[in-house]
Design goal:
Elements: H1 18-28, H2 33-40, H3 49-61, H4 63-80, H5 84-96, H6 117-120, E1 123-127, E2 132-135, H7 138-152, H8 165-191
Antiparallel strand pairs: 1-2
Helix pairs in contact: 1-2, 1-4, 2-3, 5-7
Length: about 190
């Protein structure tokens, strides 16, 4: 018996039309399907709402439309979340910020638009009336950068003293042992006759 050969056609993913793209962008940014359909097809404003609702639902169910909406939502989420690299760059900018960049040559506080971005990101307080400015703690920023590098290298630092967990565990073990010996010694003194 001869086997049937099945032809497999490669289907190119459908590209969205300009109207479909408008619909996809609107839905991906949180607009309801019906409103998104009106944005994409302004002529639909003249139609019955039930007809537009059905059309919007049908469009939303199309595989290439759903795929495009998901793609846009993922992109929006990626853009909204700060990457590790961005966080480290921000912490570095705070660590490198110089309060002298907030004042001009005469010692007068610059306007916010004249302060460079790297210094502005570190400003926690700005008062042009009283000519005061305060930066975020550079030490805290540097500690966070060091902690990140330690974690990347597999070390876990303990905030405050910079000791690793392993060192802290050893120190705690030694403290327990010493306390136990001292407790035992104190109990032996009580038992000894005078």
């Amino acid at each position: 018996m001869a086997e049937k050969r099945v032809r497999i056609r490669r289907v190119k993913p459908l590209k969205t039309t300009p109207q479909e793209e408008v619909f996809c962008v609107a839905v991906a940014t949180g607009v309801k399907q019906l409103e998104a359909y009106f944005k994409a097809y302004p002529k639909a404003l003249k139609w019955k709402s039930s007809t537009v609702s059905v059309k919007a639902c049908e469009m939303f169910r199309r595989p290439h439309i759903a795929a495009r909406i998901n793609e846009l939502r993922d992109k929006i989420a990626d853009d909204a979340i700060m990457s590790r690299q961005e966080a480290l760059l921000t912490m570095s900018a705070i660590g490198r910020a110089d309060l002298r960049n907030v004042f001009d040559e005469k010692g007068v506080l610059k306007s916010p638009g004249d302060i460079d971005d790297k210094t502005a990101i570190a400003l926690i307080e700005y008062n042009s009336k009283d000519q005061k400015a305060k930066l975020i703690s550079k030490i805290d920023a540097i500690k966070e950068i060091i902690r990140h590098h330690d974690l990347a290298e597999g070390r876990t630092t303990i905030p405050g003293d910079g000791a690793t967990i392993e060192d802290q565990t050893n120190a705690l073990d030694w403290a327990r042992r010493i306390a136990f010996v001292l407790r035992q010694g104190g109990e032996q003194k009580k038992k000894l006759p005078a």
